[in-house]
Amino acid sequence: MLSMGISKRKSPTNRGRSLKSATTSGLLPSDDSPSISQGQKRKRLSRQGSIIDIAPRFLLVCSVTGSLVVVMVVLQLAVNSNSVKSPHHRFHKNLTVQRASHHPRIYHFLGHESHPSRWDSFVETLRSSVHNAPPKAVMPLISKAKELEVADSFEYQGRQADVFETSECKAMFPWQLQTFPTCNSMHETDLIINAAKTSAPVFLTSGFWRDVWLLHNATLYDRTVVLKTLRFMHNVTLRNLDRNRRDALVMERLTKSPWILDVYGFCGNAGFYEYADGGDISTALWPKALDELQQKRKMRHVNNLMTRQQKLEIGVQAAIGLAELHNFDGEGRATVAHTDISPAQYVNVRGRYKLQDFNRVRFIRWSKSANQTCPYNVSSNPGKNRSPEEYKYQPQTEMVDVYSLGNLFYMLLQMEWPFKDETTQKAKDLVQDGYRPSFYEDVWNSDDPYDVTLKKAMLMCHEQEPANRSSAREVANYLKTQLETLNPGVLQTWGESISTTQ
């Protein structure tokens, strides 16, 4: 076993448990950055009350008016101990209704006793009870205080859009507050006509939030496009509407960039997008032909067809896409943080990997009093692919994307997911303490120029403190310079140069 985050390749069972990466200065555990425990979510409010035993007794009652047929189900209820004295006390003369404030609605029949001996007397009693009962306020099963408590619960808050502007932090640009829906063109794309002329929409895959459908030769766009729709497991909430507003808005702002996926239409939670016919970086690293077990346990040994040059080219394209996102409103002035950089977020469109999936983005605000950008916070940061400040739930900036980009470089080198052999919580703890995922000995010590280039780019991203990390543009420029040295002319085929700005 070697130190500095290296494990022997010949004996995988002897691999270290995620040791520190070897940086130029050496990453040490951060004593001044203790792990911050995450607060527990608030419990759901459960409605308290008596158990209601419901038994249907009668079926149909026809009104004497002849034109109106009333279907009524009369229920016998045992509310508590004294509401019904015996099985014979079934109906109540002065009938009032107490309606529950939730669905399905439950009706309580409360009032004075009445013991009908004949069907006609029962109908007459019921009719007179409804017409003659004095009007009373409908009392909910839960109090007003409880209703307010529910409204203030975590579940309620989780359905609301995040508050963006505050008294201190304002939008950097007006577009951050806007939206540009194209609902008419979305609705004019007839899926039935599309199915008759070519083929029915084809289900491709699902993300966490939306399903993805393939439309061949969409009527308005005269090309194959992708339709994304909200999955049935999610509700139409203000939070989800704002999530997909941000997704479409970022793609609209970056229409000019060839490194960002194109958007063709957007309305509510749905949208038309450019079709990526070449998969994503995940499928390039770990082919889908392998089953899930192979992808998890044998990633390193299954893809020997990808050359080192191809890996470097993928890394360069990923860095360029992120640099475009961070600098489209001006060099060195990020207005957007992606917050979910991973191999699956880069899709292959005719040989070019484009950055996509912006529904987790955070728009960066500006503090006029401090004359600097305001950090943001995210309430949930799962997985093993995030930065120390995300796991500590500290204020965050666009530098979280740079750290995750370093993890992508690690995957290209090691052909494994970071901290593959650790639990998620253990991986989070290690990252917060300054540790990085381990390498095989031959990979870490490789003197191949492609490996050396990717490793240095990774170390530029994996600094513990956000202020010490290189920017996305600095990483992209370094990688482009190295690629042009190793393979002259490749950048030109992409329409790129090695200039420090675009």
Proportion of strand residues: 15-25%
Mean pLDDT: 75
The class by helix and strand makeup works out as alpha+beta
- Anisotropy-based shape: globular
Low-confidence stretches: 1-119, 136-140, 293-303
Largest beta-sheet details: 5 strands, antiparallel
Between the first and last Cα atoms, what is the distance in angstroms? 44 Å
Classify the helix fraction into a percent range: 25-40%
Number of helices: 16
* CA-based gyration radius: 31 Å
Q: Strand tally, please? A: 22
Strand order, largest beta sheet: 11-12-13-15-14
Structure report:
The chain is α+β, with helices and mostly antiparallel strands. Helices cover 30% and strands 16% of the residues. The protein has helices at 119-132, 144-151, 154-157, 183-188, 191-197, 238-253, 281-285, 292-297, 308-327, 388-391, 399-414, 424-432, 441-444, 449-461, 472-486, 490-494, and strands at residues 6-7, 53-56, 61-62, 69-70, 75-78, 91-92, 96-99, 107-110, 113-114, 169-171, 202-206, 210-218, 223-230, 263-267, 270-274, 336-337, 346-349, 352-355, 362-363, 365-367, 372-374, 439-440. The strands form nine sheets. A five-stranded antiparallel beta sheet has the order 11-12-13-15-14. It has a three-stranded antiparallel beta sheet with strand order 10-20-21, with no helix packed on it. It has a two-stranded parallel sheet with strand order 1-22. Helix 9 (308-327) runs parallel beside helix 14 (449-461), helix 9 (308-327) runs antiparallel to helix 15 (472-486) and helix 11 (399-414) runs antiparallel to helix 14. The longest helix has 20 residues, at 308-327. It starts with 5 loop residues before the first strand and ends in an 8-residue tail after the last helix. 30% of the residues are buried. The model is unreliable at 1-119, 136-140 and 293-303 (pLDDT under 50).
